């Protein structure tokens, strides 16, 4: 029924995720999905109080059912069923209008009649099919596009630069709010509550921080295994910068699941990768890829390359290097959406188009199509260029690096 309604245009922007998905931030708050509109918390889980103010909910003080049926999520469901495009979902609309494949399209199959199980106020009985856990902010890298609330390695520089630059970080605000906490990743109560809504769980995605630095979640995996849920699709985002022997207990549990995928975060080659993902060890990353291939053949390995202003003009070179060095893995792009000053859209559109015109025969079609759909347009953020310069120079000074020595093609911007 629902797919027919979708094609007829009555529900022209229907997405499965508001009904089946639970997405957690490192500090314990949620969003309707990872690519929702984050400005102003529009896509986050919140209630409206008696003063008409948004009250963000988090797992420290609220259970899963309360969050699934918070005011913001109920509104999103009602708007979609009414054929409207929720403000939280305009990012997908922009991608689709530009010819790209949005998360809405990638993650929906429109086989369910969501209207029949949705109350008039937009509430539902929680039945989680898809879960995304960002396991706190404990991390051993401080990527340029990251922040203190997603990486403990960022905290020192955040405190150094927060009064000098408009950093895309709410770390101070998070620390001041008692309802937020990074410690939920170590509480048995949270995992027990989550498990109570996982009878029909199909997909589990785990990231961080660096998830393999949070061993507590291995117990959650072990419980899923004991319940016989070996068919669940499990995906990790991991940075490859660790000793595999130290995470062996988790890897041994994952051996028992039938469908495990590791999205290996590499953004560029050698020194360029280390610059973007400081202090990533390129040799260790490649060594661990080969060890995963040799010792864990049940785990599907994929390269996740995040496209940003730094690596856009070199975007094809990582895939080329891996191919030439016999690492033939499925390779796809992630994209920096925020802050604006780190997206590839601050590169002038004529330079982006010239770059993309030269890539058609150099990349697999799915990668080329993705880049074309996102960047072969006239969208620019000229007001963010000066912020990008200040941010880059300030971080270079703090880290003893030099952007133009590592990325000379950015000279036209810097």
Fold blueprint:
Layout lengths: L1 H7 L8 H4 E4 L5 E2 L14 E3 L5 E3 L7 H5 L2 H11 L8 H8 L5 H5 L22 E5 L20 H7 L9 H6 L11 H8 L7 E5 L9 H10 L6 E6 L9 H7 L4 E7 L4 H7 L5 H14 L3 E9 L9 H8 L5 E6 L13 H9 L7 H11 L9 H15 L3 H4 L8
Parallel strand pairs: 1-5, 5-6, 6-7, 7-8, 8-9, 9-10
Antiparallel strand pairs: 1-2, 3-4
Helix pairs in contact: 10-11, 15-16
On the 0 to 100 scale, the average pLDDT is 92
Low-confidence stretches: 1-11
Strand order of the biggest β-sheet: 2-1-5-6-7-8-9-10
Helix percentage: 25-40%
The structural class is alpha/beta
Oligomer: single chain
Strand residue content: 5-15%
Number of strands: 10
Q: What separation lies between the terminal Cα atoms?
A: 54 Å
**Global outline:** globular
Q: Tell me about the largest β-sheet.
A: 8 strands, mixed
Q: What is the N-to-C succession of helices and strands?
A: HHEEEEHHHHEHHHEHEHEHHEHEHHHH
Global Rg? 21 Å
Question: Can you give a write-up of this model?
Answer:
There is one protein chain. By secondary structure, this protein is an alpha/beta fold. Helices cover 35% and strands 12% of the residues. The protein has helices at 2-8, 17-20, 64-68, 71-81, 90-97, 103-107, 155-161, 171-176, 188-195, 217-226, 248-254, 270-276, 282-295, 317-324, 349-357, 365-375, 385-399, 403-406; strands at 21-24, 30-31, 46-48, 54-56, 130-134, 203-207, 233-238, 259-265, 299-307, 330-335. The strands form 2 sheets. Strands 2-1-5-6-7-8-9-10 form an 8-stranded mixed beta sheet. Helix 10 (217-226) runs parallel beside helix 11 (248-254) and helix 15 (349-357) runs antiparallel to helix 16. The longest helix has 15 residues, at 385-399. The protein is globular and about 55 Å long.
């Amino acid at each position: 029924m629902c797919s027919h309604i979708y094609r007829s245009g009555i529900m022209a922007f229907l997405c499965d995720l508001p009904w089946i998905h639970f997405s957690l931030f490192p500090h314990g708050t949620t969003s309707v999905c990872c690519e929702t509109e984050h400005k102003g918390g529009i896509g986050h889980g919140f209630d409206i109080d008696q003063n008409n103010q948004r009250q963000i909910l988090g797992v420290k003080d609220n259970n899963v059912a309360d969050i699934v049926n918070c005011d913001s999520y109920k509104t999103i469901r009602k708007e979609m069923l009414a054929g409207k495009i929720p403000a939280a979902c305009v990012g997908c609309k922009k991608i689709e209008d530009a010819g790209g494949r949005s998360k809405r399209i990638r993650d929906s199959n429109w086989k369910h009649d969501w209207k029949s199980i949705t109350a008039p106020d937009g509430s539902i009985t929680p039945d989680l099919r898809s879960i995304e856990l960002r396991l706190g902010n404990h991390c051993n890298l401080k990527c340029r596009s990251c922040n203190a609330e997603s990486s403990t390695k960022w905290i020192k520089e955040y405190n150094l630069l927060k009064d000098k630059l408009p950093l895309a970080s709410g770390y101070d605000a998070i620390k001041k709010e008692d309802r937020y906490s990074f410690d939920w990743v170590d509480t048995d109560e949270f995992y027990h509550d989550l498990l109570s809504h996982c009878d029909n769980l199909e997909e589990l995605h785990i990231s961080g921080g660096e998830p393999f630095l949070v061993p507590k979640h291995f117990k959650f995996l072990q419980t899923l295994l004991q319940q016989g849920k070996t068919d669940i699709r499990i995906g990790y985002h991991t940075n490859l910068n660790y000793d595999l022997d130290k995470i062996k207990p988790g890897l041994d549990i994952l051996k028992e699941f039938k469908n495990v995928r590791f999205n290996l975060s590499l953004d560029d080659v050698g020194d360029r990768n280390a610059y973007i993902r400081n202090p990533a060890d390129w040799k260790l990353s490649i060594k661990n890829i080969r060890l995963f291939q040799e010792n864990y053949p049940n785990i599907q390995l994929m390269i996740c390359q995040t496209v940003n202003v730094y690596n856009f003009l070199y975007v094809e070179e990582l895939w080329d290097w891996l191919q030439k060095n016999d690492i033939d893995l499925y390779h796809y792009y992630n994209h920096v959406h925020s802050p604006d000053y780190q997206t590839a859209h601050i590169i002038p559109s004529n330079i982006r188009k010239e770059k993309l015109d030269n890539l058609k025969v150099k990349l697999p079609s799915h990668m080329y199509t993705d880049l074309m759909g996102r960047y072969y347009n006239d969208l620019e953020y000229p007001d963010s260029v000066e912020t990008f310069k200040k941010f880059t120079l300030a971080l270079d000074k703090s880290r003893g690096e030099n952007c133009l020595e590592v990325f000379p093609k950015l000279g036209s911007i810097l």
